[in-house]
Amino acid sequence: MIENKALSMNIESRLSFEEFRKEVLNDYRLACESREVSLLARREVLTGKAKFGIFGDGKEVAQVAMSKYFKPGDFRSGYYRDQTVAFATGIATPEQFFSQLYADPDQQHEPFSGGRQMNSHFATPNLGEDGNWLNLMEMKNSATDMAPTAGQMPRAVGLAYASKMFREVEALHDLKHLSDNGNEICFATIGDASTSEGHFWETINAAGVLQVPLAVFVWDDGYGISVPRKYQTTKNSISAALEGFRKTEGTNGFDIYNVKGWDYAGMCEVFEAAIRKIRETHIPALFHVEEITQPQGHSTSGSHERYKSKERLSWEKEFDCNLKMRSWILENALCDEETLVQIEANAKTTAQDARKAAWEKYITPIKQEVQRFVQLATPVSATPGVNAELVARQIQELQANREPQRRDILKAAVTILVRHRQLKAEPAIQALQQYYDQYLQAEKENYSSHLHATGANSVHNVPVVPAEYNDDATTLNGYEVLNKYFDQLITNNPKVFAFGEDVGKIGDVNQAFAGLQQKHGQLRITDTGIRELTIMGQGIGMALRGLRPIAEIQYLDYLLYGLQPLSDDVASLQYRTKGIQHCPIIVRTRGHRLEGIWHSGSPMGMIINSLRGLNVCVPRNMVQAAGMYNTLLQANEPALVIESLNGYRLKEKLPSNLDTFTVPMGIPEVLKEGADVTLVTYGSMTRIVEEAIVTLEELGISCELIDVQTLLPFDIHHSIVESLKKTNRIAFIDEDVPGGGTAFMFQQVMEQQGGYRWLDVAPRTLSAQAHRPAYGSDGDYFSKPNVEDVVKMVMEMMEE
Questions:
Q1: Active-site residue 304, yes or no?
Q2: Which residue in the list 520, 599, 717, 718 is annotated as catalytic?
Q3: 3-class DSSP state for residue 314?
Q4: 285 forms bridges with which residues in the sheet?
Q5: pTM of the entire predicted model
Q6: Confidence class of residue 316 from pLDDT cuts 50, 70 and 90?
Q7: Which of 476, 514, 392, 769 is closest to 649 using CA atoms?
C-alpha cells in the first residue's frame, strides 16, 4: 500500500493533503462520468437514436492521468477512444459528445464537426474568419480526429516539430499567441493494434531523428478488434519491439515507459516526471499503457464475447480501471464508501442529463419542421384534384414518427409535389413547393458547406497583381527564377519553412533552393529522410500551428506515399470541422514529361478526385509557379503545386515584382486567341500544343489556346465555354491516362458549363496511353501526346 505522505510528494505543486484528496476525487468523478457516458451512448445506438458508437470505456483512468499534464498551448493528435481526454481537458463536454453521437448539424450544439463526423472526433478552432490566427496559447488544442487507424500519427510529427521551430528560430519568438518558446507538447494517442501500421513506424522513426516534444500514448487492450496482440506485434509488446529506439547516452531516439492502465498513482508519478522532461528537453517519449480493458467491446457493431475467452472476460472485470481506482482510494483512506457512492450516482445523473439535453436540442427543431410541414400540407389536401388520401398518409406517418429526421420531412413533401405537378399553379401547392425548396437548400448548406476556406482565408479573396517586367528584364532559367523567388520569400516571411528530400544541402534535385540553406540556415531549409508520409505529416502539423510550410515530394510519382494524410486529413479538414480548423500546407512537387516510368508521372485524375478540398496548381512555367505561391501564401488554404519537370532549364523573363505578383486560382488564361477550335490544356502539355499550333496556323486553322492554370478550382467564371461559343469546337489535352484529367475537364465544361449546346462537332480528349510512360525519348513520344497527335486531332475535327 502506498502511503498518503509519499503520494503527496509526487504532486507537482506539493498540494496539501486536502487539496490532493479533492484532486483525486475529481479525477475519479471524471472517470465515472466518462464511463456512464459510454454505457448510455451504447444504449442510444442499440435503440436506434444514434447510428454507430465507439467509446473509450476501460481507458478512463489512464486518460485522466495523462490529461493532468496537458497544458494550454499543447496539441492533441488522438484517436476515437479519447473521450475522457476531451472531458478532462475541457475540449468537450458530455452533452457535446451526445450531440455528436446524434449527428446534430447545429454547431452551437456540436462544435467539432457540425454533425459531420461520428462520435469522439474532436476539434478546436485555430483561425478566425478574418484570417488571423487565434491565441492558441490560451487553448487546449485538438487536431481533428479521423477514423483511418494510425492516420493521426504523421501530423503528430509536425505538431511537435513546430515547437522545435518556435524554440530554435529566433524570428518566431515574438509570436506569443502561437507558442511559448516551443514549450508545447503534442500528445499522440493510438491503440496498440494500430501500431502495426506503417504510419506509426515512420512517425516514431522521424520523431526519433528530429528530437521533437512528442508524447505517444499506446492504449494496449490486447486486441485489434478480434485479433489478439500476438498476431499484431513482434515480441507481443510494442515497447519491447521498440527497444532499439530507446535513447541512450550520445544517441537520438525515444524515452520509453511502461505503466499499467489501472494504476492511477503509478501513472501519475511516471507521467509527471516524463512529460516535464519532454517539455524541457524536446526528447520524445512513448508510454506503453498496458492492461487496458474494453468493457463494451470494440464498438456497437459487435460483441467481444464472441472472441474473448471466459478467463479474459473475468480478468477484465477484475482489472477494470475504475474499480481499481475506487479500491485504491478506499485503501488509502482518501474518502469513505458513502462519498464514492455519491460520486458514482452523480456521474449517472450527469450523463443522463447530458443525453437528455443533447437529444432535446437535436430533435426539437426537427419536430418544429414537422409541424410546419403539416401546416402547409393540410391545405393541399383540400385543393380540388389533389389525392387527399396520399397527402393525409404523408401527414399521419410523419406525425406518428417519434424520432423523425430531416430527410423524412423532405421525402413527404416531395412525394406530394411530384404527384401533383399538374396542379403546381395552385396556391397551396406553391406554398409547399417554396417551403420544400428553401428547406432543402438550407439543409444542403448544413451538410455540404466549407469544403474550402471563406472570407479572408480564401484564395479567391487575394487581390490579383499582374506580373510586371522592366524593358531590360533579365532572362533566366526556370530554376533560377524560383531560386530568386524562394530567396526573397524566406528572407521576408519568417513563418515559411521548406523541407524534403535533398532540399537542403544541394538545394533540391532541380536547384530551386541552391545555396539557400547556406544563406538561411538548416532550420529554414531542411533535408529530410526518404519518408514522404511524414514529410506530409510534418507540414500538416506545422500548418495547423500557424507556420507556412512548403513540404516537398521530390517527384509526383511518389505522392502516393503521402496521399493518405493529404486526402483523409487535409483535403477534408475544413469540411469535416465545418470551417473551424485550417491547414494551409503547400505541397511542392514536380511531374509531367521527362523520360522514365517513375519520373514522368501525371496522375491528375487520381489527384483531383482524392484531393477535393485542396487547390491543385499546374503551372506551365516557373514564373507562373512563383505567382501561385504568392497567392497561396496570402490565403490560408492547402495546395499542391506541380512544377513542370522539363521546364527548369527553359528561359523565362524575370518579373520586377517577383515576390508580390499573384496568379488567381480557378481562372484560366487565354494564351492565344483563335476562331476555329478551342484547345484546353495545362502544365508541360502547353508547350506541346503551342508547337502544334504553329503547324495548324500554317494549314489555315485558327486555334484558341487556354491554359487552365489550376485544376482545383477549375474555371470558376466559366470562361472556357465563352471560347467554345466562338469556335464551336473544343479539345481537352493532358498527359494523364484516358479518362483522367481530360475527362474531368470535359465534364466541367460540357456538363457544368453547358458547353454541349455550342458544339458543331464532337468534342475530343487527347491523353496519354493507359500505361506508365516508357523510358527514353521514343518512350515519351509513344506514351504521351505529341505535336503530331495534336495536329492530327484538330485536322480531323475541322474535316468532320
A1: no
A2: 599
A3: helix
A4: 215, 255
A5: 0.95
A6: confident
A7: 476
